[in-house]
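Review form for a predicted model. The reviewer records the input and the model, then writes brief findings.
Reviewer: anonymous (R2)
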Amino acid sequence: GRLLMTPDEYCQDKAAKSGSSFYYSFLFLPPDRRRAITALYAFCREVDDVVDECSDAGLARTKLVWWRQEISGAFDGSASHPVTRALEPVVARFNLPLKHFLDVIDGMEMDLQYNRYPDFPTLQTYCFRVAGVVGLMAAEIFGYRNPDTLRYAENLGTAFQLTNIIRDVGEDARRNRVYLPLDELARFGITAADLVQLRETAKFRALMEFQIERARDYYRRAFASLPVEDRKAQRTGLIMAAIYQATLDEIHADGCRIL
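Model under review:
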C-alpha cells in the first residue's frame, strides 16, 4: 500500500484523532464541503497545537511565523504542509479570505502574550479571532443565501468559545491560565489564585452563572440572526450548537462544579 497520506487523508486523520464532536457533525455534509471543513478544522488544530505543545514561547512564535507564510502559500500555490496543500482548492472554491486565516493565527498568538484577560473586550477579541472568524469561514463552506447568516456564524463561534472557556476553567487554571475577565472576577470577589487553588465557593458559582448566562446570550443572538432559508445549509453548526448547549446546561444543573 501507499506509505504517504494524501493531504486530505492527513486532515481527516488529524480531525478524527482529535476525538472532537465537531468531526462527527461533518459526516452529514456532501463530500466537497466535508473535505473543505475538515481541512479548515485540521488547520485550526495544527496552529492550536503549536501553542499547546511548545513550552518555549519564542519557538512557538517562530512556528506561527512559519504558519503565516505557509497559509499564504495556500493562496499562491507554494504551500508545502499537507494541511495547507489540502486548503489550496478550498480557499479558491469557497472564497475564504487570507485575512481570516491570519486572524486565527493572531488569536493563537494571544495565548503566548496573555495568561490573564483584563476585561471582556480583550476576551471578545480573542474569541473573535480563534472562533468567530472560524464560524465565518465555516458558513462560507456550508453555504448561505442571506448575508445575515454571517452574523449568526460569528456569534455562534463566540458562543462555542465561551462554552469551552467555562468547561475548561479548572483545567486552564491548573496550567495557570485564566480566560475569565479579571475585572469580572473582582466584581464577584474572586481572585485568579482562588481559581488556581480550585476553590469552589458560592461566589465562584455566582461568577460562573454570570458567565453561563452570557454564553447563552450569544447562542440566542446567533439563532435570532439565522434566516429560515439558510437553516438547512447551516445544520452542521446547529448540530454542534445542540451538543455545546447541552454541555452548558449540564454544568449549570450540576451547580457549576467544574474545578
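Findings: The chain has 13 helices and no strands.
Further findings: The first helix runs from residue 7 to 17.
Recommendation: see findings above.
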